[in-house]
Amino acid sequence: MFTVYVLYSERYDKLYIGYTSDLEQRLLSHNKLAKKGWTINYRPWKLIHKEEYSEKRAVMKREVELKSHKGRDFIRKLIKSL
User: How crowded is residue 7: how many other Cβ atoms within 10 Å of its Cβ?
Assistant: First the structure.
């Protein structure tokens, strides 16, 4: 199983969109374990959206869609409803 996910840093009003086969470990990495990378600068991250797919190709396609203008509009609407 693969998961596409959206993280939100409320403190910095930043989004991160990615995919993984182990969401729990990936969230731990984003919020605590990672020592370098873009996401460490905007901690803490909150999971605001996730979708599961059985095929890697499908999850990669959805990640690209969420990173598009239309996808970011969808995400910003999610944030407003929080």
Answer: 23
